[in-house]
Amino acid sequence: MSVVVIGVNHRTSPLRVLERVAVGADAMPKALHALASKDNIREAVVLSTCNRTEVYAVTEKFHAAYDDIAEFFCELGGLRSDELHQHLYSQHDDAAVRHLFEVACGLDSAVIGENEVLGQVRGAWSLAQESGAARTTLNLLFRHALETGKRARSETGISRSTTSIPFAAVEMARELIGTLASRKVLIVGAGTMGEGVAVALTMNSTTQVAVINRTESRGRDLAERLGATMRPMSELREALLDTDVVVTCTGSGSFVLDRELVESTMAGRSGRTLLIVDIAVPRDVEESVGELAGVELRNLDDLRDWVKSGIETREGEASKVAAIVAEEVERYGLDATARQAAPLIAAMHAVAERVRDAELQRHAKRLAELTPEQAEVIEALTRGITAKLLHEPTVRLKENAGTPQGERLADALRDLFDLH
Length: 420
Hints:
The structure is a single chain. The protein is of the alpha/beta class. The protein folds into three domains: 2-159, Beta Polymerase, domain 2 (2-Layer Sandwich); 165-308, 3-Layer(aba) Sandwich (Rossmann fold); 344-374 and 398-420, no CATH class. The chain is built from 17 helices and ten strands. A six-stranded parallel β-sheet has the order 7-6-5-8-9-10. α5 crosses α14 and α8 crosses α9. The longest helix has 48 residues, at 315-362. The radius of gyration is 28 Å and the shape is elongated. The chain starts with a strand and ends with a helix.
């Protein structure tokens, strides 16, 4: 069996494609079920963030699984195969493992070292477990991925400075308008990204922050915790009239700010420029809004270009993280190959135990004459003989797991112990 990863990300795909294949939390169970029902996929985890949508799968036939997953992406985004394939990438076995570990460490993010991605990896794995799509192989892989991500952040400085999409969005807005001091900022969306934006804004106590969210209770909770103002979605137009910067991050799947709304709003702003930063996937703001006079619209493509200037400061740390990833890929490989032998070893010991128990039962009448102390000696003696007889084949299986020699040993032991 092979572990494969197939997907699109911010390096291979424009935002217009990324947003079409994004999978929200509500749609994730259906997506996992669709993948798990494919003939060539045994296990699956879908990781969908603002930087990527990737499918991690366990399969025995790589090319057949690739076709299944490519078809899944086409159906998900309503894309033709020729529209998708130029953006699709794939890795398998060690390369797939290394890719996931780099993702968990933040090396594969638009903002190098971002903190959010580790939680997103954990969340994707958790949803797959709940859906029954992640089992033995992917559970082991993702557990190692989380351990690798934690090592990277505790042993290096990869996550220092601006290391998240929300913080980068705030920094870019500050640079574009000069300062956020005494400015009014409207956050549309009170999820994880919205909270990250709000936290970043609280670093400047004079910034006036307002929060709008479809679910008012969630928006109110965020506003109260961070000392911001909460406004209902019904007051969105009025809020736009009286703000300097808007950061949208709902990921609702439909436009929160369309051209008609923003155009009518700008007519009442007396010529004041409005900066809109859209960090949602799919986008919250209709692209043509950026054509309106007085509107500066930035999205994730712009943000990724902007953050490139800060990458150099973390390049040294990135090389340290790469070394950690290499160590952890090797550690995972040893753990995975050892586990390949575990079912056969367990079955072999079970057969031996059944034989031992049957022999003790056959001589039960004679053994009944023994004292408890003597019976205990017999029990220990027979267990010891069984363990010693199985010790060498057990060690050999573990040492050679995952190699041609290991396969030959496994086949021989299956024949000898009738384990087919």
